[in-house]
Amino acid sequence: MNIYRYPENPLITPADVKPHREGFEVIGAFNAGIAEYQGETLMLLRVAERPVSGDPNVVIAPVFNAERGDLELIPFRKDDDRYDFSDPRVIRNKSKNGTFEYLTSLSYIRIARSRDGHHFTVDDQPFIYPSNEQEAFGIEDPRVTQIGDTYYIYFSVVSPVGIGESLVSTTDFVTTRHHGMIFGPDNKDVLIFPEKINGKYYALHRPTMKSIGNPEIWIAESDNLLYWGNHKHLLGLRDGMWDSGRIGGGAVPFKTDKGWLELYHGATSDHRYCMGAVLLDLNDPTRVIARSGKPVMEPEAEYEKQGFFGDVVFSCGAVIDGDTVKMFYGVADTSMACAELSVKEILDSLEYLEAKV
């Protein structure tokens, strides 16, 4: 597989983003949704900010208080035996089976803009910021689907009651219309197809199973983009392979003459994230035609291997130009990068589950 990583990579780093709030530091500018609008490539960055603690023995958890309409800062001492601070992203409660109780940062969406797809400038202000109780712990990993002149932006919303997926829409990337939660907890990695298929909208999603089952890709349909049903399991984990630990959608699926091509992320049990591909039937996207036996892309560059959470290549959004896929992807849970790949080479690399189409 020929992969051309942009020499400017990483295109956006935390150092390129000014903190929204005084006393905070930006620790991540990554996992951005991608849109093309009025001659520009837009990155809808997930910006993660955390409060700077003046005491090295204290970790501060930022929580959006919907009643007050502002952030609440909750301090935790590292010598408090009730909590586990080993993962820098979360504060875990040992008495609750190690489940996370708070996040150490708050995420929101900010826009970065480029005329050439290589050099970006970041807006001074947030585009979408937490505004209700479902977003108490932040807004994460936005994706963008354009249908006509409307851009549908959907993202994970995190709160003490779970992680779900909410939807907003815009026609100008200035004003937004909020549509509420479209996939309830626990669910994330939603991707909405860019057109109706036989009269239905389709979306990929990834429920997080707590009783039985695994973090795998499902597909659902809708008449109106708001209410989703007829859920079906689409793609599962594979023991001993690059996607044995968890899988989820990456870039919005796009059309090829062979089918809908979805560039998804897969991870091993030790959290090494790679990018692979799955080919779905054009007229029935619930039918899997082919899938990557080996990753299409792996963390190899230093900026992919080292960061806040290393060994991560996380596909986010694809811009298609003929046979070229301009793949914008998150690296090491820290920054954004881009690489170019060939659609034909990706299709040729797939393992077909039935007679090749």
TrEMBL record:
<keyword id="KW-0328">Glycosyltransferase</keyword>
<dbReference type="Pfam" id="PF04041">
    <property type="entry name" value="Glyco_hydro_130"/>
</dbReference>
<protein>
    <submittedName>
        <fullName>Glycosidase</fullName>
    </submittedName>
</protein>
<dbReference type="GO" id="GO:0016798">
    <property type="term" value="F:hydrolase activity, acting on glycosyl bonds"/>
</dbReference>
<comment type="similarity">
    <text>Belongs to the glycosyl hydrolase 130 family.</text>
</comment>
<dbReference type="GO" id="GO:0016757">
    <property type="term" value="F:glycosyltransferase activity"/>
</dbReference>
<keyword id="KW-0378">Hydrolase</keyword>
<dbReference type="InterPro" id="IPR007184">
    <property type="entry name" value="Mannoside_phosphorylase"/>
</dbReference>
<dbReference type="InterPro" id="IPR023296">
    <property type="entry name" value="Glyco_hydro_beta-prop_sf"/>
</dbReference>
<keyword id="KW-0326">Glycosidase</keyword>
<keyword id="KW-0808">Transferase</keyword>
